[in-house]
Amino acid sequence: MNLVCKPIFQGIMAYWDGNKNAASYTIKLFINDRVISQRINERTELYCSFTGLAAIDGITTTLSSIVSGSGIVRPSVGFSGRPTHSGLDYYLQVEVEDKNGKIIDKTDKVKCSVKSF
Q1: Per-residue CA distances from 88 to 2, 57, 58, 63, 72 (Å)
Q2: Structure-model confidence comparison of residues 71 and 31, the more confident one
Q3: What is the mean pLDDT of residues 6-10?
Q4: How far apart are CA 43 and CA 49, in angstroms?
Q5: In the beta sheet, which residues pair with residue 105?
Q6: Letter string b/e over residues 70-96, b meaning 16 or more CB atoms within 10 A of that residue's CB
Q7: Which end of the chain is more exposed for a tag (fewer CB within 10 A), N or C?
Q8: Cα–Cα distance, 117 to 114 (Å, whole number)
Q9: Could you give the percent of the chain with pLDDT greater than 70?
């Protein structure tokens, strides 16, 4: 089964290939190995989005600035050097459940990123 994850503004959009024996899909959002959210989709919904997420990897930068009286955007915090990874990442996994409640297939965990302002 193929799972594709794309960053959206403050979130993640995911879509996957269907399974003809599926009764439902369980979509799990992880931070590293910890499940932080879970959704259940009907067999005909082959996509899911998670919103309201912040960049947690320490590499994705967010716009934190103030505008001076001249209209020039200046960073509010000085930063020198290269950002380092925080050790935290988002991952998604989709499990396929049949009509008897048995998990018949699942994707690998796919690493995801978030678009921030």
Answers
A1: 24, 5, 8, 20, 33
A2: 31
A3: 95
A4: 16
A5: 96
A6: eeeeeeeeeeeeeeeeeeebbbbbbbb
A7: C
A8: 10
A9: 81
- What are the structure tokens assigned to 109, written together? 């965990």
Per-residue pLDDT for 77 more than 50?
yes
- Residue 27's nearest CA partner among 35, 39, 19, 37 is 39
- Distances in Å between the alpha carbon of 79 and those of 49, 58, 99? 32, 13, 54
Amino acid letter, residue 49:
S
Integer Cα distance of 85 and 3 in angstroms = 24
- What does the alpha-carbon distance between residue 50 and residue 29 come to, in Å, rounded to a whole number? 8
CA distance 79 to 48: 36
Which pair of tokens denotes residue 68?
């001076």
Q: CA dist 22 to 45, 48, 115, Å?
A: 11, 16, 31
Tokens coding 82: 């290269």
